[in-house]
């Protein structure tokens, strides 16, 4: 039985909305089309994204540009070891005039929250954020507040400089629908980045001036409103998922649980995330049904952070990426299990 | 003159008498009055005249000897020797030093006079003594060098065992790969059932997965990134059309109505049944 049998083609307005967002972000951020696509997928499916990449890959700029493109509220928190849960969620403050407590809402009350270097904060801060991500509610004092809709957390992690960090455990990584590993831009893209940067110039302020940055180049005029986003989110729900595709997902997830190199296989949440993300990707690619290409494109971002390799596999120098690639390259199980195709 | 001679004879007799008296006194001294000392305190006896050939201290044969004797010096004295001796006792009691001598020429010591000494203890009577140490087995056989040699032998044996096990495993895998069903053999019944319209949804999914594997192997895209390989397959003039048709058939909401399945599957009906060979890029983990 199919997940959805309707499969109506995407409306032109929705297609136009998605293309406009991608075009606007591309005006500011060179390359990184895949990341923009992943962020859109997260927005359309109410998932959360963990971006892993070295500093300087325009993560913050990308999120900032995306927020301004759709007229969404955007806040950024730089996670540090001395950050407290109340710094994120908010707290009750005693008003000296009225002698009553009033609630100060933290930066989590926003549409797009960039949690920069989430692994630098203590586990209790990470837990506070991740609980809010899952429940979309925050309790301050005795009052529970619902977070704004849409609510999307985009967390970043630096894969290097691991000293003094608190690595997110598998249970908390599982809360992120997508975990995308950012790659360096290609040579042509990097040339374009440098060319655009050299044309930024300076920005006069009163009698002084400062050099303009890429953030100054972000157009403040949005191309879409949150209502457009809601319409696109509804359109995602119309994307058809066949039994065959569901079978592919179940087979792939199941193989991670029996692979000799994988200690902890993917949870059912991985399959759910893969199908949700595949539907959003199908919409982004102007299709009204998902195809295996969606699965292949999204498997790494939805499954890799939900797997843990065995000690022996790690000792042999294998990575989760290699093992997952071996599973995808042997999609039908034509080769024997346990052999790794590099 | 006669008077002088008489005086010399009298003096000589008197001297001899004194000498004999001294020797007798020494002999009586060695026999009668034992020298007394406490445990561990060295005692020196000087110029003790003992008859016969030269004596030396008997070597200590075990750790239980109660007396340790040393001959400090020996001087010839007529037919015998004068000795400077030193001894100390380790156990309280009365001992005869004669038992701790031997002749250098190996002759007996029976004619020696008794040299009795007494070793006393300073400890009060009833003193509690510590328990005697119990013998224990040695902690390990051999020393550090033996341990290193043993570790080296074990390491080499382990290395050989690992290599042998690995070789056996490779042989078993090679045998298994020869016996494995080929891709074509797995595809054939599914293709036939697809043409006949008898595939279950599970078999439809398996058919698509095997078709993807088939084309990836045929176009040698095993080394490529899976997502990029699939994109390349979709662009391939032969594979692309097939895969797009299969996608429409299996994934589109309109389903099989848009695709002539028998026509799409026809080229895969009689694939050659070659045993599946392992790709050169396949590495064992």
Set down the secondary structure blueprint:
The complex is a heterodimer of chains A (342) and B (285).
Chain A: H1 12-28, H2 33-45, E1 49-52, H3 59-69, E2 74-78, H4 85-89, E3 90-95, E4 100-105, E5 112-116, H5 123-135, E6 137-140, E7 143-146, E8 152-157, H6 170-173, E9 178-181, H7 187-198, E10 202-205, E11 208-211, H8 226-236, H9 243-258, E12 262-264, H10 268-284, H11 292-303, E13 308-309, H12 311-315, H13 320-329, E14 340-341
Parallel strand pairs in A: 1-8, 1-9, 2-5, 5-8
Antiparallel strand pairs in A: 3-4, 6-7, 10-11, 12-13
Helix pairs in contact in A: 1-2, 1-3, 1-8, 2-10, 8-10, 9-10, 10-11, 11-13
Chain B: H1 2-32, E1 35-38, E2 43-50, E3 55-57, E4 67-77, E5 80-89, E6 93-96, E7 101-103, E8 116-120, H2 144-179, H3 183-195, H4 201-218, H5 226-235, H6 239-251, H7 261-265, E9 282-283
Parallel strand pairs in B: 1-8
Antiparallel strand pairs in B: 2-5, 3-7, 4-5, 6-8
Helix pairs in contact in B: 3-4, 4-6, 5-6
Low-confidence stretches of chain A: 1-6, 336-342
The description of the largest β-sheet of chain A is:
5 strands, parallel
Unreliable stretches of chain B (pLDDT < 50, length at least 5) are 13-25, 275-285
Give the integer mean of the pLDDT values of chain B: 80
- What is the percentage of strand-forming residues of chain B? 15-25%
Note the run of SSEs of chain A as H and E: HHEHEHEEEHEEEHEHEEHHEHHEHHE
Reported for the largest beta sheet of chain B, the result is: 3 strands, mixed
Number of strand segments of chain A: 14
Please give the radius of gyration of chain B in angstroms.
55 Å
For the largest interface in this structure, which chains are involved and how many residues does each contribute?
A-B, 42 and 43 residues
Total number of helical segments of chain B? 7
Radius of gyration of chain A: 21 Å
Computed structural class of chain A? alpha/beta
For the record, give the distance between the C-alpha atoms at the N and C termini of chain A, rounded to a whole number. 36 Å
């Amino acid at each position: 039985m199919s997940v959805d049998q309707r499969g109506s083609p995407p409306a032109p307005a929705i297609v136009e909305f998605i293309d406009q967002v991608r075009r606007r972000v591309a005006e500011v951020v060179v390359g990184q089309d895949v990341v923009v696509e992943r962020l859109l997928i997260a927005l359309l499916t109410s998932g959360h994204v963990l971006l892993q990449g070295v500093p300087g890959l325009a993560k913050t700029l990308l999120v900032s540009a995306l927020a301004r493109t759709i007229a969404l509220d955007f806040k950024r928190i730089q996670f540090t070891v001395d950050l407290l849960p109340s710094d994120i969620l908010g707290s009750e403050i005693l008003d000296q005039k009225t002698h009553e407590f009033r609630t100060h809402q933290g930066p989590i009350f926003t549409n797009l929250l960039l949690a920069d270097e989430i692994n630098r904060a203590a586990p209790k801060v990470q837990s506070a954020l991740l609980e809010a991500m899952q429940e979309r509610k925050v309790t301050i004092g005795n009052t529970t507040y619902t977070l704004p809709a849409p609510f999307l957390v985009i967390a970043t992690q630096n894969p290097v400089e691991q000293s003094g960090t608190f690595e997110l455990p598998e249970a908390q990584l599982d809360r992120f629908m997508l975990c995308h590993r950012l790659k360096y831009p290609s040579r042509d893209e990097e040339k374009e980045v440098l060319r655009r940067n050299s044309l930024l110039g300076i920005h006069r302020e009163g009698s002084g001036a400062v050099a303009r940055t890429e953030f100054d180049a972000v157009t403040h005029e949005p191309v879409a409103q949150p209502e457009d986003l809601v319409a696109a989110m509804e359109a995602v729900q119309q994307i058809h998922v066949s039994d065959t595709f569901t079978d592919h997902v179940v087979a792939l997830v199941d193989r991670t649980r029996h692979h000799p190199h994988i200690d902890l296989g993917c949870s059912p949440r991985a399959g759910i995330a893969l199908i949700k993300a595949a539907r959003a990707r199908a919409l982004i690619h102007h299709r009204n049904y998902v195809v295996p290409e969606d699965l292949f494109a999204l498997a790494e971002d939805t499954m890799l952070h939900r797997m843990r390799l065995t000690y022996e596999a790690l000792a042999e120098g294998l990575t989760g990426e290699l093992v997952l690639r071996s599973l995808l390259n042997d999609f039908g199980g034509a080769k024997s299990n346990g052999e790794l195709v590099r | 003159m006669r008077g002088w001679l008489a005086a010399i004879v009298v003096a000589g007799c008197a001297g001899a008498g004194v000498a004999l008296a001294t020797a007798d006194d020494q002999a009586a001294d060695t026999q009668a009055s034992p020298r007394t000392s406490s445990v561990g305190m060295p005692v020196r006896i000087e110029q003790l005249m003992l008859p016969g050939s030269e004596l030396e201290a008997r070597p200590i044969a075990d750790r239980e000897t109660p007396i340790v004797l040393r001959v400090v010096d020996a001087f010839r004295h007529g037919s015998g020797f004068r000795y400077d001796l030193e001894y100390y006792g380790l156990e309280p009691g009365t001992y005869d030093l004669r038992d701790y001598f031997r002749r250098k020429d190996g002759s007996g010591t029976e004619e020696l006079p008794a040299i009795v000494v007494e070793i006393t203890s300073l400890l009060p009577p009833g003193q509690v003594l510590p328990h005697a140490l119990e013998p224990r087995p040695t902690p390990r056989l051999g020393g550090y060098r033996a341990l290193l040699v043993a570790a080296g032998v074990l390491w080499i044996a382990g290395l050989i065992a690992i290599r042998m096990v690995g070789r056996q495993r490779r042989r078993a895998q090679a045998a298994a790969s020869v016996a494995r069903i080929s891709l074509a053999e797995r595809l054939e019944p599914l293709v036939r059932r697809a043409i006949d319209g008898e595939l279950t949804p599970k078999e439809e999914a398996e058919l698509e997965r095997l078709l993807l594997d088939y084309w990836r192997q045929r176009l040698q895209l095993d080394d490529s990134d899976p997502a990029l390989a699939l994109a390349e397959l979709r662009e391939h003039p032969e594979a692309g059309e097939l895969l797009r048709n299969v996608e429409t058939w299996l994934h589109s909401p309109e389903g099989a109505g848009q695709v002539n399945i028998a026509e799409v599957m026809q080229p895969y009906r009689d694939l050659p049944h070659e045993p599946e060979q392992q790709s050169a890029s396949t590495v064992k983990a």
